[in-house]
Amino acid sequence: MSGGARAEAADGPSDAPAVGMPGGRARMPGPRRYGALRPGDRVAVVAPSGPVEPERLEAGCAVLRDLGLDVAVGEHALDQVNLGTPERVRTPLGSGSSNSQGSRPTSLRTLPGGGTPDPQGSRPESVRDDWQRLAGSDADRAADLQAAWCDPRVRAVVCARGGYGATRVLDHLDWDALAAATAESAERGGAPKILHGSSDITALHAAFAARLGVTTSFGPMPAGRIADLGPILSGNVPTSDDPDGADTLDGLRAGLFRDGPAAVRGTRALRPGHAEGPLTGGTLTLLTALLGTPYASPPAAGRIVFLEDVAEAPYRIDRMLVQLLQAGYFDGAAGIALGSWERSGDPAELDSVFTARLGPLGVPVLAGVPAGHGPRQRTLELGAPARLDGDALTLSFEPPRASGGPLPDGVLTLEAPGGAR
């Protein structure tokens, strides 16, 4: 077993102590857990990654409104540029200005009656549809994200879709301003607001966790899976006709409103056992892409690692796992939860890859967790204390404390199937 939490896996105890801790005890301060949404709360939908289809965005925002939320959309959410479009020269966000939203303000537009902002967005004539595109320039995408996070009226920042581009935004954010806005919320006695999204948004999850010390929400997005949920929410489509959509909607409610149980069930244990610890991880490609950057996730010591991806061949998944292993990312991990691997080859071949690469860690590995890119996209709270039960095939979360304060320091343990510690 590779360091980390004091552990006993299915094949017996480990003699390896926790990294840097006597007797195998891994202590770490926990992040502040985000606050649950309530009807009437304002959420800002921004597009930090790929280009957004206006019709899909409108349908997804309508679902959020029907859930009782006041929806606003970032000024640049429907912009489009190609990957190589030169950035306009402008003052960096936050430079020379006391405005916490940066020296170049951006605005949020309300969506009365389901309308979206300028349906054409900003699209230079030179944009080519046969080339890869982003939802606006890096600076504009960052400006929308920062404005939403720093706006005290906004209770959640919801990313419209994934794709590609979030890593390019990271250097354009004023992290001091984002941290100040997070601290101001705490001083007012409130819990942090929510950052919600998945896939490419993993880059933001990792950076917000490390730099702002908050939990974040990994789940379906308005211009993605949420856009399909309107008929279920309205009752026009029975849940029995779309059980995957109904489960996605239930998971979204549970994740954002803390309305209902947040536990999810996998389909099989590639390695049995029980694990406890904060949930970390996200989309495999992004976790690997962040290695060697200032925004890389720290090693997952004492944590349960969630992994998923889409349209990646087994050899590419194997290569990324090897890279993370060689970088020490999995050192001391308490457990592994594997989500969906849509369009990623033969599931049996993938299981063999996961067993070969992750099995030697000596920790429980739960597969088939319905989160990621599949038709069932449950919402997971990254950074929250979780429990992986390889016997019951469940991944569950502890309810947050009423104050929304930081998680207590604690001893993270891996429990054997029989309950021994």
From TrEMBL:
Gene3D superfamilies: Class I glutamine amidotransferase-like, LD-carboxypeptidase A C-terminal domain-like
Region Disordered, annotated ranges: 1-40, 83-128, 398-421
UniProt-listed Pfam families: Peptidase_S66, Peptidase_S66C
UniProt protein name: LD-carboxypeptidase
LD-carboxypeptidase N-terminal domain sequence ranges: 126-218
InterPro entries associated with the record: Carboxypeptidase_A_C_sf, Class_I_gatase-like, LdcA_N, Peptidase_S66_N, Peptidase_S66C, S66_fam
Record domain LD-carboxypeptidase C-terminal: where: 276-388
Family stated for the protein in its record: Belongs to the peptidase S66 family.
Compositionally biased spans, kind Low complexity: 24-36
Keyword Ion transport among UniProt keywords: no
Species this chain originates from: Actinomadura fibrosa
Regions of compositional bias (Polar residues) in chain numbering: 94-109
Keywords of the record: Carboxypeptidase, Hydrolase, Protease, Serine protease
